[in-house]
Amino acid sequence: xxxxxxxxxxxxxxxxxxxxxxxxxxxxxxxxxxxxxxxxxxxxxxxxxxxxxxxxxxxxxxxxxxxxxxxxxxxxxxxxxxxxxxxxxxxxxxxxxxxxxxxxxxxxxxxxxxxxxxxxxxxxxxxxxxxxxxxxxxxxxxxxxxxxxxxxxxxxxxxxxxxxxxxxxxxxxxxxxxxxxxxxxxxxxxxxxxxxxxxxxxxxxxxxxxxxxxxxxxxxxxxxxxxxxxxxxxxxxxxxxxxxxxxxxxxxxxxxxxxxxxxxxxxxxxxxxxxxxxxxxxxxxxxxxxxxxxxxxxxxxxxxxxxxxxxxxxxxxxxxxxxxxxxxxxxxxxxxxxxxxxxxxxxxxxxxxxxxxxxxxxxxxxxxxxxxxxxxxxxxxxxxxxxxxxxxxxxxxxxxxxxxxxxxxxxxxxxxxxxxxxxxxxxxxxxxxxxxxxxxxxxxxxxxxxxxxxxxxxxxxxxxxxxxxxxxxxxxxxxxxxxxxxxxxxxxxxxxxxxxxxxxxxxxxxxxxxxxxxxxxxxxxxxxxxxxxxxxxxxxxxxxxxxxxxxxxxxxxxxxxxxxxxxxxxxxxxxxxxxxxxxxxxxxxxxxxxxxxxxxxxxxxxxxxxxxxxxxxxxxxxxxxxxxxxxxxxxxxxxxxxxxxxxxxxxxxxxxxxxxxxxxxxxxxxxxxxxxxxxxxxxxxxxxxxxxxxxxxxxxxxxxxxxxxxxxxxxxxxxxxxxxxxxxxxxxxxxxxxxxxxxxxxxxxxxxxxxxxxxxxxxxxxxxxxxxxxxxxxxxxxxxxxxxxxxxxxxxxxxxxxxxxxxxxxxxxxxxxxxxxxxxxxxxxxxxxxxxxxxxxxxxxxxxxxx
Amino acid sequence: xxxxxxxxxxxxxxxxxxxxxxxxxxxxxxxxxxxxxxxxxxxxxxxxxxxxxxxxxxxxxxxxxxxxxxxxxxxxxxxxxxxxxxxxxxxxxxxxxxxxxxxxxx
Lengths: 851, 106
Description:
heterodimer, A: alpha/beta, FAD/NAD(P)-binding domain, Enolase-like, domain 1, 7 domains, five-stranded parallel β-sheet, elongated, B: four-stranded antiparallel β-sheet, three-stranded antiparallel β-sheet, metal-binding (chain A), nitrate assimilation (chain A), 2Fe-2S (chain A), NO2/SO3_Rdtase_4Fe4S_dom (chain A)
């Protein structure tokens, strides 16, 4: 069978690759004889990565043709030779050199050409297009004699071209007819963020500009006149205003073409002639032209399978147009119905202006399915979102969390790799399904690189990298292969493993831990050091400022106060259960007044004092300690507060003394160091005024005793606590809480809240009940004893600090001066202080004199 | 010109110390290997004088300090921010003479 392919671009080459691969696997009646005509002088290269040609890549680097591909396959490639005519009756193709090549099957992969708007002046010197390596060569030559360059067209390709101009060292502008950039893929909000980002890179962006003519310039070679009367001068112009299918050969041969161009094809990629196929950007399927490479690849596969009568015949039934790319260092992704054009579509939008991040989800009218998304600046969610849409999966509850940032280590609603069907396409560039990745793992690809080379997944745009890893890890775990959860580059262990290593080896210093179990060549980092400090504190409970431990602490722990945005600290004295005497209140008030601190009642029923400079902290604490207060540990990953309602003592409905019990609990667990901060609440009756079900540990009084709830969470990812045990007396409840907390402290990951820890627990709540109530692991006594040790060794860190001159030295403003930091400036607002803004600091607004 | 700022015993290894050098706020660090580094105490991301309060460490072979506010890492040798190469801290030349720590200023 004689097959002639016209065009050797990305899609044409993919077609011959599939043909070479599959023809040998399928028993063919007649051997195939393949001829490829390539108009360019270079064999197929990666047009998607074209700009990298300017950052040092060579034509060879960009080549898509494996070494010896044509020699090995026996296929013939004619470089520098195009087709001028197709004679369908005689079944021949005439080449630019005049010869006639006979075919049994003809494949048109002629691609597209760049559209140049019909402007007067468009053919002037240094007016170019951006499509082939030859075009790039011309750009290089032109750039040498130019200072300013303009790209006409602010779409995906236009912005790529602008990057190329910038890389060539030109002052670069983008002129776009539409009122925003990338009008096809993204919406107004995203366009604004993208525009700001690209403008910040020094590229001039001119939107809503209709160029009417190009004439001689005054300061540059050309002057572009716009319909609104404005103009722009430039030495060089690149047209990148879209593409048009190259269908002239098909027209000449009398094949069906669309009203606006494109060779009409059906699901087998056949034209109206049963022996002629069209694939890629020259093809028109259901009135659509796909200007992306992934759909072209799918067409190539379909046509190849159709020609060799492959038993796994594939139909082309349309393609997803989602894209993820980096434009001038700016991450941009668009998925599905990005504009929310579907009837009833609703959207969630997250905009972070300071960091120039824009994210939008488009969901169905019933909120259950993802229809589309736009991501600018942070595209981490791309792979997961794409799968949700492609596989028509149900969205998790609180779908908006999929685009919200995670500040506190709380996990996002997970799109487990397990939830995906085996047929799900993970890598759409190379058409790799979840099943193929699983197969590769089964065949021995045990790491990411092996998967990549084994399946080609994640080797093109890389948008699916995170998902490929997830699928691989899930498979490896199923096979019993350990998946590493290293906390950082210094320790190849999870927090839980480090905890056990410290306990078993009685390790009490970071150096010993690093020498024995870490990368002892180097110092640690700001991830492993505080983790180690927290583990040591849970196990040995020594003072956080003891010398070898001091350098491990986050600033909050180191200065035992909460660092605020301007470098000052806030101070929170403990008010167990929220109970405070009038004298206590007066004392706190006098300290606040004396040091001119901002005071606020917190959500945890305490009083926070803001605006203390480093050197004031010991003075403030001295006075608070004298008034009977102790540290509230508001700065630590530790027990924060035990909130309570009024309880049976005063309340008409109270069943039990919630205040008394809250105080008892707070005093028991105060200062306990844990993977994340812990909050408790005790409610005196089921009216739940203390909101105990949103806490890590919630206690609610009933007629028969206390009900114990665990693993709730307020904050940015709320989770209701679950009932662990009911009708408990105080003593049993404390036992259970001891076991629960210690089990959490020992087994949770770094910065993992109880809610996330619980969600990741195999066996779920039943397992937790077994461990805590039924002592299924036989650990109950040990857990209780460890908690008792922490309780018995409690000390108020501040009391120790104010009596230790060595520690007090650290609160000096400077090692060589006692002058306060003059960059700390306050302004009055509602009768109290607040940090001055930069404008206020610059003296544009009067500031309050501070003593 | 060299100015004596403090003594080595004032510098707990791996814990930063703020100092005033000719009116400029400087953060001084003494690492495990005994090397002493000085960089600006002013965190360009938070615009607060807090670098001395950061945790020191080593990332990808660089000795670094992490800003305690938004956690960016700065190379102690060059002052360069690992997360954003367009940002860096001013660095100061440190000389240790016996027990004395001296910092150069211009």
